[in-house]
Amino acid sequence: MGITADTGHSGSVINQPYDLTSGTASGGSSSSPRAGKFPIQNSRGQSMYVRTDIHEAQTGLVFVLHGFSGGMDQPHVQAVGDAFHRNGYTVVYLDATHSFNDSDGTLEGNTTGSHRQDLDDCINWAKTQDWYQEPYALGGHSLGSFVCLFHAADNPDKVELVVPTATALSGDHLEEAFKNGSRPHYDSFKSRGFHHVYDNWSGKNQKAKRSWAWLEDMRRYDVTKHLDKLTMPACFIVGSRDMPTPPSQQTMLFNAWKGQPKALYIVEGAEHTFTKPDHLQKLRDHLDGWLKQVHFTRRPNTKNTRNNAPKP
Question: What is the value of pTM for the model shown?
Fold first, then answer.
């Protein structure tokens, strides 16, 4: 599988039982932020929301993580999960802390490290559930993809495949993209020490600051230095008009990726966040088709990897 460009055609769990009828944790608030979500606790003592879409004929498990300032309810995050669910996966969505979503924390407190730790905590919680299995898949968007790749590099024997959509490569690559995308905006960001980030998806109309220190911290991370450990299959998807994580950077990572099979899909006209219905459909269809090809040719038998251990 190679590069495809579209032509335009087409933690520890909070000790409250989850109430499937109300969408809340029993004994908690009667008005959960979103129906179907429930809180778990991360290793920093913060509440973060998850949602599980259990597949009745489960043959795989995937964790899906949004990007900076995002959440599980974003259409492009749901599109990734939908494609996995079509292919027999139980899907675990996470609202990481310090974002424009229902979990604890403010956006100003977000770091690459906090995003990564929330993913690890979610997976550790999942290990206590009957549906947990290894190896599992990872899917994400932007910063979510970025930290998924670091988790995969640290746990290559546990990760079946990865689906990085619009992933960052490193803090240096992101800074270069900011420069190339809008030099006046980049200069203002650096000189003022922050820029504003607007919530245009949750309906809450929030505004927050991303500090220059956030980008400085991200410079400590570079996926390209861990490619020797990233030997699992990968499906890269990016919009042709993506400024922060442009197709040129995705192509660089795709060409260096050692795992097979691999694919890179460039969705014509899409920006960093897939919002238009036709772009979302292409995102969903590209991933659905790739998963079907991968599983037909190489998927391991996972029947005996389900979690049968006694739960604490």
Answer: 0.87
